[in-house]
Amino acid sequence: MHTPSGAPRPRRVAVAMSGGLDSAMALALLQQQGHELVGLTMRLWREPGNAHDPAEADIASARRVCQQLGVAHHVVDLQEAFYRQVVCHLVDEYAAGRTPNPCIRCNRWIKFGLLLEHALALGAEALATGHYARIAQQTGEYLLLRGRDAAKDQAYFLYTLGQETLSRLLFPLGEHTKAQVRAWAQARGLPVAERPESQDICFLRDGDYRRFIAAQRPEAVRPGPIYNRAGALLGEHRGLPYYTIGQRSGLGLAAPRPLYVLALDAGRNALVVGYGDELGQRALLAREVTTVSGRPLPAGASVQAKIRYRARAVAAQVYPEGADAARVCFDELLRDITPGQAVVFYQGERVLGGGIIAQAVEAPGTSATS
User: pTM for the whole thing?
Assistant: First the structure.
């Protein structure tokens, strides 16, 4: 486990138990180090309709691991808060023509908000999770670092964590690889060693967010016009949630060259498409910008930025605009800047912060096709 240098070792640690492999091994590693532990599993809202409730299966799996390791286990009911903060937000964002990342919002408000509060109320000094990320200290400041396993690094999803929160967290898996973690679970005979990875939108019964949004907000998933940038009508789309920036397939349009989604115009319920050389910008505006240090980045700060979890990091400069907004200018054209996704800032292995993409814009002195 990577413990912040110079920080006292917590005596009593609550471990967020999802029922999966990673959180189980976080518990096992902390127990091996001699901590006094308690397992906490969140009961989150799930869409009804499954014959076998996956939430109950996750809770049962976490309970079995805790029983096997002799650790007390508690279930924390956060269904109402999760529905309000994560589920409703996802529906609202898609209805507005944006593509949200529910995991980031859940981490900020539920897991490292309400669950951490519950852990501290139980007398825990820290909350541990199975995230592949690291925490360190430097001159009295907590740093958020990428996980050692580049293929599993999850620091992108944690950019909203600030100093007070980081001081209460442990990421026991951050120094290890997924292969090591699975091998250790198998060697210990943990019942979760072969459990599959959880899906991206965990609260849906089938992973189909378009079906869910259509049921929750029918007016958000209705046919509308497809235009090119010149305003010519090219066809009809099935509903804006079926599309995202840069998408090529599924447009149902005949054209001499491939067409791509350039923009989703929720105000007109319209899709804007164009050719590949029309796609992309060199800058974006971000909202809800936060930094790990709590201090705004200096104007023109040089960073590496990722505009999606699986995107490669690109050199960029950040220019704060007001208290919680920023303009991010990239050194190269990016074709899939997507409103609603997160842009996360790095310097090497260190996560500096990030924000939610509001819109793609032109960088000063450039054009979309330069």
Answer: 0.92
